[in-house]
Amino acid sequence: MPIIDIHNHFFPRSWPDLAERYGTPDWPWIKHTEPGKAEIRVGHRFFRNIYCACWDPEVRLQEMDRDGVEMQVLSTTPVLFAYERPVEHALDCAQMFNDAALELCAQGEGRLKSLCQVPLQDIDASCKELSRCMRAGHLGVQIGNHVGEKNLDDPGIVTFLHHCADVGAAVLVHPWDMLGQTRMPKYMMPWTVGMPAETQLGIVAMILGAAFDKLPPNLRICFAHGGGSFAFLLGRLENAWQHHPVARGICELAPRAYLNRFFVDSAVFDKRALQFLVETMGAERVMLGSDYPFPLGEHGIGNLIRSSRLTSRAKEQLLGENALQFLGITRSKEVGDTGAAKPATPNVPPGGQLSYSSYLQVPALLELQHPQSSPQHHDELLFIIVHQTYELWFKELLHDLDAVVENLRGAGAIPDSRDEVYEAARLLRRCTEITRVLVEQFTILETMLPTHFLAFRGKLEPASGFQSEQFRELEFLCGLKDEKMLRYHRPTPEAYAQLERRLREPSLHDVFFEALRAMGKLHVDGTATERERFDARARAVLSLYRDEHSNRDWIDVCERLTEFDELVVSWRLRHIQLVERVIGTRMGTGGSAGSSYLKLTLDKKFFPELWEARTLLTE
Ligand code: HEM
């Protein structure tokens, strides 16, 4: 079982002068005092001594080896959260440190992963930054246990946590900005007294404020430092809940019933406290967290768990098994079985330069083909590579179409601006070119004789194109949303959550017509039927074409969208031809009727109004 430390911190070796960058005082900065040592200062105030394990992956990996730790999941330090600052500064700061975290992890031989930070004072900005970070390789997010006066049951924060569940992000809640500081000016009491109380407050607010009732059960959330004083005082909380209606809050169940909704880490520094924590929370809810490499962290990471009187099974759970679940990763996928982890990010030697191979991760890429036939059938490699190539292009299409959606949204917000419309058309052109290649690519697979495919087809069941998450995402993103198709993704909760999110979000179709509405081209009465709405949309497109001189850029977007629609239908048709050429009219491995089912999809169009407008033009 891997040993995974989910709570530890980093600081980059250096970063820009934030006070100068944002024109406001009292930002954290780093002062290198001697080789390998530094101070963090906040404005003129001393904050903390740190050493090179914060920024030097080589030192960190050596110390992980020393302590037998296979993987660490790094977070920034709450002093960088900037929740009280203007959102644009907090976002910029978050992006800077989030990217720095990935750079550090890239040098961690696949053994370093990261949680990002977000400007939690602004929920939209936080959701966007989290999504960006998840795409870039973070495993989740570290948040503070409150934002000013707002606790974790604040509706905005609950919305953000919902988004975390949707995108499969693990959430680590870290106490910060401690209460009662004027009464705790000395002896590090904000850390030893304030932090445990803050964490307890975070958990209690989520329980009593019904946040857990509102959030989906697939949210993976963990509270640092053993959940602060929560476990020890749970009896008191339950007692109040049972006997004082006013103490009940608005939750549906008694507090103890929510223990299976969150994790805590093991940073309690006392064997009896750990034993009690495990007895209260359950061995499946506590994970190794060290607070390394800070002075208050565990020296000899994992020793508290190893030397405790927990059963060996419980130790396994605490040291790594629970973390795999919390982080939403599998051992085989993220952590090597031999103890040496597989590189997941460019493997650049410290101080060295990127090479073609490390940048593109060629060795990892070439490791990803695993034919199932035995003895291996010659053509199975082709079958795998063609599918993988499609999936890579699907990824690029999603990336570009997401940007098109943003551009059209921008165009709707400022109807006179032309830049976004131009950019949308430019990116759509790329999408059509990619799709053209995807239509063509089937011919390569047609060099495989049907008999050769049948020789290994039996090994594929029940895997099927129905399970291509990205293909379905593309359909949902463009506007063809069919909730029924989610059922093929039930076995993979992250894919399921991602598709559910796509179902909820405005599609390309939605933002395109919203922009036309904002421009005054589309008028729909609130009482209109679905058919009347469709006609209104088609007529809005018609009005663009009828005044070509004024609408050239929008007509360009329409043409690109039409071409994309056309090419996706071509893809469907070529796929059917391939299917018939290889398996005739047999059933698919996904259980459908095969080509006769696929033929029904030929009528699917993302933008039927663009086609209808052509009929109207001839009126
Ligand atoms: C020998 C080659 C192939 C055969 C025999 C084949 C067969 C099938 C069949 C029968 C289906 C219907 C679902 C089912 O019952 O499984 C299907 C769906 C699908 N296939 Fe393929 N396929 C092949 C190659 C490909 C390739 C190269 C791709 C590229 C990504 C692909 C992507 C898909 C997708 C996305 C679906 C779902 C389509 C939808 O729901 O509209 N297939 N395939």
Could you characterize what this model shows?
By secondary structure, this protein is of the alpha/beta class. The chain contains 24 helices and 11 strands. Strand 7, helix 5 and strand 8 form a beta-alpha-beta unit. Helix 4 packs parallel to helix 5 and helix 15 runs parallel beside helix 18. About 0% of the residues have low confidence. Bound molecules: protoporphyrin IX containing FE (HEM). Protoporphyrin IX containing FE binds next to helix 15, helix 22 and helix 23.
Features:
619 residues; alpha/beta; 8-stranded parallel β-sheet; 3-stranded antiparallel β-sheet; 24 helices; 11 strands; 50% helix; 9% strand; binds protoporphyrin IX containing FE
Reconstruct the topology from this structure.
Layout: E1 4-9, H1 18-22, E2 28-34, E3 37-42, E4 45-51, H2 57-67, E5 71-75, H3 87-106, E6 112-116, H4 123-136, E7 140-144, H5 155-167, E8 170-174, H6 189-208, H7 211-214, E9 221-223, H8 234-243, E10 263-265, H9 271-281, E11 286-287, H10 303-306, H11 312-327, H12 331-334, H13 356-360, H14 362-366, H15 380-413, H16 419-445, H17 450-457, H18 469-478, H19 493-504, H20 508-518, H21 530-546, H22 552-583, H23 595-600, H24 608-617
Parallel strand pairs: 1-5, 5-6, 6-7, 7-8, 8-9, 9-10, 10-11
Antiparallel strand pairs: 2-3, 3-4
Helix pairs in contact: 3-4, 4-5, 5-19, 15-16, 15-18, 15-20, 16-22, 18-19, 21-24
The structure holds protoporphyrin IX containing FE.
Mean pLDDT: 93
Poorly predicted spans: 336-345
Helix-and-strand structural type: alpha/beta
Helix content: 40-55%
**In what order do the strands lie side by side in the largest sheet?**
1-5-6-7-8-9-10-11
Biggest sheet overview: 8 strands, parallel
Percent range for β-strand residues = 5-15%
Number of strands: 11
**Overall morphology:** globular
* Span of the ends, CA to CA: 71 Å
Bound molecules: protoporphyrin IX containing FE
Radius of gyration: 27 Å
Count of helices?
24
